[in-house]
Design a protein that fits this description.
The chain is an alpha/beta fold. 25% of the residues lie in helices and 24% in strands. A hairpin with a 2-residue loop joins strand 15 and strand 16. Helix 1 crosses helix 3 and helix 4 packs parallel to helix 5. The strands form 3 sheets. The protein has a 9-stranded mixed β-sheet with strand order 11-14-17-16-15-18-10-1-19, with no helix packed on it. Strands 8-7-6-5-4-3-2-9 form an 8-stranded parallel β-sheet. Strands 12-13 form a two-stranded antiparallel ribbon.
């Protein structure tokens, strides 16, 4: 597809993804594995394409949230190892076999359902360290291991945890939890040699590099998103573009937008872009791409200059002030901020 035929599109740079994988691997100790997390359609980048790029660049396996995501990847021809990070329903056990996926388990009911399938299933047992979404209480692990030992078709290949850590907020607590998880992991590995223990996501990898354990699960860093204050050599592979489809001269005091809510404080030149909240625009964009301050002010980039949003963002359009860009023309391309996972899947993704 040619961008010249489009009014709005997302550019994704595969070389940036490859570069990010190489940089992440350079931060790992020898023998530590890398899981490339491609849940939520690879954070909006396109899970099938990003999976192939990440595996070819050196990722050891892929992480998805659901069995549906794993099956979709298999349908697109992805052959690498896939770990389903959220426990599926017991009734989905057969789908786990069909997806040839490694499954996160946190209940006896799911373990029993998987054990009843006609072939071995690899599982990761998840422990809850405060996030409260799923996972066994650490104190319940010993009894759980005794229970599932009765089912030889279950192959326990991993022990996982996802901390409630937010960079810059609860580091001391996170350190204590990682130390406790490592202690438990060491005990279980003595019983199950070869067990892969993992608790480090992007934030933990950067802020607690000494807790890489056997594998790290990286999502944000893969896509050039740094959740910490640490300097990195990551590249941003993402760019949302929209073309100017109309230009208007607005007199001082003129009203524009729904409800005539916006009153021009000066003579203005305003451009219309064919992208709105149905595309994900203004749906909590990342702070590093826009200024979040008084009035929740959003802006795009046109010819290297900021062009602020004016008026209320519509379902399929937004207005921007291009008064400071004298050479602005219909057809010009504006780069826009957007939360990547909120970007409408129907917007064309161009890989170049």
């Amino acid at each position: 597809m040619d961008a010249r035929a489009l009014l709005k599109w997302i550019e994704i740079d595969p070389s940036a993804i490859r570069s990010n994988v190489r940089w992440i691997r350079s931060q790992l100790r020898p023998g530590v594995r890398l899981m490339a997390v491609v849940k939520a359609d690879a954070y909006g980048h396109g899970a099938g394409r990003i999976s192939e790029i990440a595996l070819a660049a050196g990722a050891d396996c892929l992480g998805v949230l659901t069995l549906e995501e794993a099956l979709r990847l298999r349908g697109e021809g992805v052959r690498g190892r896939i770990v389903v990070l959220a426990p599926p329903l017991p009734g989905q056990a057969l789908l786990a076999v069909r997806a040839r996926a490694e499954v996160t388990v946190a209940s006896i009911d799911l373990a029993r359902a998987l054990a009843r399938q006609g072939r071995p299933v690899s599982i990761h047992i998840d422990l809850d360290y405060g996030l409260g979404r799923w996972g066994l209480a650490p104190r319940a692990l010993e009894g759980f291991l005794r229970e599932i030992a009765r089912w030889p078709r279950l192959r326990t290949v991993g022990l996982s945890a996802h901390l409630d850590y937010v960079p810059g907020k609860n580091a001391v607590e996170a350190e204590d939890k990682l130390r406790e998880f490592s202690r438990i992991a060491g005990t279980v590995k003595a019983l199950l040699p070869g067990l892969v223990c993992h608790a480090a996501n992007s934030g933990v990898l950067l802020d607690f590099p000494h807790w890489q354990m056997d594998m790290v699960r990286v999502g944000n860093l893969l896509y050039g998103i740094n959740p910490t204050s640490r300097e990195t050599a990551l590249r941003d592979p993402w760019r949302l573009n929209a073309r100017v489809i109309a230009l208007r001269e607005i007199p001082k005091g003129g009203s524009i937008g729904y409800g005539s809510e916006y009153i021009a404080p000066k003579r203005m030149r305003v451009a219309t872009l064919p992208v709105g909240y149905s595309d994900g625009l203004t749906m909590e964009p990342a702070e590093r791409l826009i200024r979040l301050g008084h009035g929740l002010h959003y802006w795009g980039m046109l010819r290297g200059r900021r062009v602020p949003f004016v008026g209320r963002c519509g379902i399929a359009h937004v207005l921007v002030d291009v008064s400071g860009v004298r050479q602005a023309r219909v057809g010009d391309v504006v780069r826009l901020p957007i939360r990547r996972t909120a970007a409408n899947a129907r917007i064309a993704r161009l890989y170049a």
